[in-house]
């Protein structure tokens, strides 16, 4: 890590929220395929904390938002708004986590099969604080363990950063969690930067219409999707409004038949299911 980043950390010893939004930057390393542990994906994640709560999301969403707003503004001038996200690197962390203070109500925002879902919970993690201490990027941290979503987890939190929050859904310790990983190292969150923000991040995901569901309902919808990945396409083509609609291949620009669309959807999604099987929350995707 570069020296200026380390110095930046040292300047924030005994950090406290002062009414402004703070951004804590983590590197998320995860192994998507439980049968191929050599494949590791890394993504930069932001934890934005204000007095009202926090939001944890991929930094790639900021790029998407920036391009979206730029295209909208250009479209207003030309009178023709065209949204093209093909050149944007797609986030592999398909979730946003929001927490409300002081209740610590947690909401998982995610999507699949054309559904935008919000899963709310108020679970309190059962932390066991251990005597071991360490140093992470200049901060003294202490060890804590818990069981969450079918995995045993190890956390290192900093008492000097008096925020009971952390990456993903992890929170409730007497200091900010700087490092969080499951016992097998399949999912690792490690802090790499801190900076002040003066306005809340605009994330277009929250402008989408969401369906609020329980964990049980989420799991039911997920298993229905796995058993029939092209169900929504079949429904679209069966509706009277869409029966005559022609779809085109985004690469070849050639028209696609109903059978082509269904086959492509089923093959693509089943390939995804095979490759992405090592979910951070085993209980949700069982």
Automatic annotation (TrEMBL):
Name of this protein: GLPGLI family protein
Native source organism of the sequence: Chryseobacterium manosquense
């Amino acid at each position: 890590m570069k020296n200026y980043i380390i110095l930046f950390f040292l300047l924030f010893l005994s950090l406290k929220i002062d009414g402004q939004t703070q951004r804590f930057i983590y590197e998320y390393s995860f192994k998507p395929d439980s049968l191929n542990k050599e494949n590791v994906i890394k993504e930069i994640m932001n934890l934005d904390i204000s007095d009202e709560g926090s939001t944890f999301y991929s930094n790639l969403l900021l790029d998407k938002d920036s391009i979206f707003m730029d295209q909208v503004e250009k479209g207003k001038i030309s009178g023709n708004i065209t949204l093209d996200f093909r050149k944007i690197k797609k986030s592999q962390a398909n979730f946003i986590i929001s927490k409300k203070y002081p209740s610590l109500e947690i909401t998982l925002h995610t999507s699949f099969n054309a559904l935008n879902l919000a899963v709310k919970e108020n679970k309190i993690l059962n932390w066991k604080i251990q005597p071991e201490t360490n140093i992470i990027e200049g901060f003294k941290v202490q060890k804590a363990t818990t069981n969450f979503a079918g995995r045993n987890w190890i956390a290192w939190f900093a008492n000097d950063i008096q925020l009971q929050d952390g990456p993903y859904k992890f929170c409730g310790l007497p200091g900010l969690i700087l490092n969080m990983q499951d016992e097998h190292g399949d999912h690792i969150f490690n802090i790499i930067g801190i900076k002040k923000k003066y306005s809340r991040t605009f994330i277009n995901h929250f402008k989408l219409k969401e369906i609020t569901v329980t964990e049980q309902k989420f799991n039911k919808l997920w298993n229905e999707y796995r058993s029939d990945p092209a169900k929504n396409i079949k429904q679209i083509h069966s509706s009277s409004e869409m029966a005559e609609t022609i779809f085109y291949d985004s690469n070849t620009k050639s028209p696609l038949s109903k059978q082509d669309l269904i086959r492509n959807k089923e093959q693509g999604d089943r390939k995804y299911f095979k490759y992405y099987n090592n979910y951070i929350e085993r209980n949700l995707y069982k």
